[in-house]
Amino acid sequence: MLAFKLLLRNWRSGELKLLGVSLILAVAVLSGISIFTDRLESTLVVQSNSILGADVVISGSQPLNPLWAEAATAADIKHTQATFFMSVIYAGDEMLLASVKAVDVGYPLRGQFEISDIPYAINPNDISIAQSIPLQGEVWGDSRLLSLLKIKVGDKIAVGEYELRVSHILIREPDGVNQLSSFGARLVMNAADLPLTKIIQPGGKIDYQWLLASDDTEKLKTFIEELKPQLSKNQKIENIDSSRASLSNTLKTAKNFLLLTAVIAVLLAGVAIAIAARQFSERHTNQVALMKSLGVSAFRIRSLYFSQLFLLGVLAACIGLCFGVVIQQLVASSLQQLYHIVLVQSSLYPYVLSFLSGLICVTCFALPALWFLPKVPPLKILRRELAVSMPQIGLQAGLALLAIVLLVVLFSRDIKIALIISAAIIGVLVITFIMALLLLQLSKKLALSLGGVWRLAFASMQRRKGQSMVQILVFSLAMMLLLTLTIVRTSLIADWKIQIPEDAPNHFLGNINSADVSDIRIWIEQHKIKVAPVYPDVRGRLTQINGVEPTEELRNKNNSLRRELNLTWSAVLADGNKLLDGNWWDSWEKNNPQLVGVSVEVETAKSLELKIGDQLHFSIGGLDLQAEVASFRSVDWKSMKQNFFFIFEPYALDKFSPTYGTSIFVPKEHKISLNQFLRSHPTILMIDFGQIIENIQKIINQVSDGIQLVLWLTLVGGCLVLLAAVMSSIDSRKQEAGLLRALGSPRRFILGGVLIEFAIFGFLSGLIAIIGAEFLLFSLQLFVFKNPLQPHYIYWLFSPLIGCIFVAGLGVACCRHVVTTPPAIVLREAI
Amino acid sequence: MSSVAMVEAKAITKSVHTQEGELIILHEMSLAVMVGESVAITGASGSGKSTLLGILAGLDVPSSGDIILNNNVLTALDEEGRAKVRADNVGFIFQSFQLLPGLTALENVMLPLELRGNKAAKSLATDFLAHVGLEKRLNHYPQQLSGGEQQRVAVARAFASQPRILFADEPTGNLDSTTGARIIELLFEMNRAQGTTLIFITHEDRLAELCQKQIELAAGAIVSSRK
Fold this sequence. Notes:
The structure holds 2 protein chains of 2 kinds.
Chain A: H1 2-12, H2 17-52, E1 56-60, H3 66-74, E2 78-91, E3 94-103, E4 114-116, E5 127-129, E6 138-142, H4 143-149, E7 156-159, E8 162-172, E9 185-190, H5 194-197, E10 206-213, H6 217-227, E11 236-239, H7 240-243, H8 245-283, H9 285-293, H10 298-339, H11 349-370, H12 393-412, H13 415-449, H14 452-463, H15 465-499, E12 507-512, H16 514-526, E13 535-545, H17 552-557, E14 565-569, E15 577-582, E16 596-601, H18 602-607, E17 615-620, E18 623-635, E19 646-648, E20 659-664, H19 671-680, E21 685-688, H20 690-727, H21 730-742, H22 747-785, H23 793-820, H24 823-829
Parallel strand pairs in A: 3-9, 6-8, 14-19, 16-18
Antiparallel strand pairs in A: 1-10, 1-11, 2-3, 2-7, 2-10, 4-5, 4-8, 6-9, 7-8, 12-20, 12-21, 13-14, 13-17, 13-20, 15-18, 16-19, 17-18
Helix pairs in contact in A: 1-10, 2-8, 2-10, 2-11, 2-20, 8-11, 8-12, 8-15, 8-20, 10-11, 11-12, 12-13, 13-14, 13-15, 13-22, 14-22, 15-20, 15-22, 20-23, 21-23, 21-24, 22-23
Chain B: E1 5-18, E2 21-34, E3 38-43, H1 49-56, E4 64-69, E5 72-73, H2 79-89, E6 90-93, H3 105-115, H4 121-131, H5 147-160, E7 165-169, H6 177-194, E8 197-201, H7 205-210, E9 213-218, E10 221-226
Parallel strand pairs in B: 3-8, 3-9, 6-7, 7-8
Antiparallel strand pairs in B: 1-2, 1-4, 4-5, 9-10
Helix pairs in contact in B: 3-4, 3-5, 4-5, 5-6
């Protein structure tokens, strides 16, 4: 109770404010980040999984084992099935090869079907979200299917031996991982109707998908792990990681960044807490001496102060948590407004963790500073000059590092980032120590040789050697961390934006006859759409390598040996392709004039164990094509552009009567026109992957916005640290300024001294910060983000400059009132 | 005044190690202060007055010799033991007042009472402040009070815990003569009311003469002792 009373009195007197605010900020930033990250992560996973239709999909050519389904039900895991196949659909006299998806009740587990009664519907008012799968006896066909079969909603079509009514037009569906789904028009039907079609025959090319989802990710993971050994060779597990590698990478990088930010935020707040606690304890040495002179035991003093600190920790954690919740809710609401995305609720874990982090901060950052208080000798009440042994800085730093590692482990279980940051901090400590020592040596000489305001500044540095050292260290550390964060953020977001540019192709047009190619080109030109290469496309199989049929083992290892490949020819190396070995056509020399040249994607070449000059045998529509490997290329799969595993030399495929294909970016305003064009060219296949791009862009924007906010919060933390560092010397400055003012020094003279002193600190700290930041970035890029390394020249200029201006400004702002208040009051306050 | 000693120093020596060798601050000093007695310790700067006060009050320990305070041999106790003796017996008044800047006048007086777990801390502290004439300044902070007022708060704080012995280190050193006289008056008035033993360190002859006993120090030794 007394501790609480004392806490309130200390708070009211302002002595605990900086400590309290730093603690609140630490918890607010941590809880804001962790709750937001938790919600964002869950939402992104759910959203990404909506592309997949489930959290995990097990696909293969065998039907689902009913025992597995029972086990999933028993484990309380949601599951459903989908069956994919290609079939010729009949409508009156019209017929069309379409991709059919027969779905069970509950499909999709993530995401939704969007349907309409209007073909090629774009207007949101015309599109509705399906509340169930198609009823029995009904199907949903995509606009192209209806257009090619010349039917409308309500008409009947025949799938195999069964006739079904087209009840709606399919606008969008969970994309699935089905290879077949990218060809032809699409049809969705109820799986209960499947037996009536009599399409499923032994040996037919069917892809069975078992979709699983659970809100309890651990449970699902365990279930899948247990299932793995029972899967057959041709059954594979797909999740967002495997099916959308680039998206998954974005998420991982974003998570790493947010984690890094959280660590930095804690570190900054931790430094502020430690400084504030040290300041608090220094101010309390007299109070403790007084209490001891009154006969209060060391044990009682310790328990009184520690209880105050604990109470402060609990209160600050509660307040910080409330702020954190509000902050993350604000971001969530803005996301909802901007992108119409509702974040799923967070689990309890980040709340508990954030609360605990407040107490960890108190224990590791603040407690060591107060540890010595009970040891203050009572005699200090009589002899103010009596030295009090303060805790070792090393001990404080050690405990602070422990806190960081502890928090990082708790938040992420990622020790690597913590170790990298710790190493960088130690590096900065060493550099700072050396540079600060040099500066102080220099200032000693300069204080003697220079006059006026410069002398005052250098003498002040000399007088407060220890404090100057700590201030330079803290400024450097805070600036290093903020610089790192800013640079990483900028390069990450830039990297993501490059990955999916605003005008990334969102439509694939394929199956274009050579006669239609010019029409397409005219349409593209008319609508001023960015010209994209039109590639010839023939489908063929790779049957022999160097005259030998691939072994079963190689076949199993390599997907390109098991399926039909899209083959093309091109005179130029496409954007995003890089030649790694061999020569492009202009400098390639054939070994055998009978063979055409082929350039192979490097990963495929590796898995097929190919060498330059190897001979490949393709079978294209029953005809043979012999080719010689001319080069290996790397391909940027992250780009949404059309990519090929095998590219032949110009005109090599012309005799196989190719169709043509292209990927283009169609802005929204031209979508109707494109649909009209497609109606007049019904054989052209159009795949609209605008939704996928939109989803990825949405996710990137969400993450970028989240990062932006978190960065601002951390910046506030950084400013607080700088403020704490400046404030740590304010008491002695007050006294000094009061004295100088009393002796008649003009205000400009005193502030000039402060300005020069802090400007030098800021400049030096900025310089140390950029050295440390480059080291930190180097390690982070190398070990965490795995990005190419590059120096940041511009920051080498800006960091010392901004440090100089900002720290000088802060120093002057903090010391201003010292010179504007009458000296008598300043001197009395300083008693 | 009783014939029982409240505090007794037996051949105490205090020395410290300096770069120049061992420096003796107090040399085999012995004295006794009786219960209810008022004693002034005088002497030039550096004569060892403050060191003697610190040792007599149990804030410091002598290098050799014994201190007995209210029948407790301080030199046989550790810091925790000495703290207990101080808590039960000792009060202080300092030249620089030693009020806590973050606390109001009332809270400064309440603090020692609260530390002793006194439930009536607030009313007792209010009474004592009223007694020193500060009933209208209860909620003022030290910076808002004059030097004399601050010292009156310190007096109220010292007497609020009703110590058996009060050590005052230059209590009027920072005050003008009129204010100083008022403070001295207050101290003796409370000494009479509570029977508190008073030990002053002072430069002021006027204050020394008011005491029943004057001890003069020079170079760490008693040069005169008058009653």
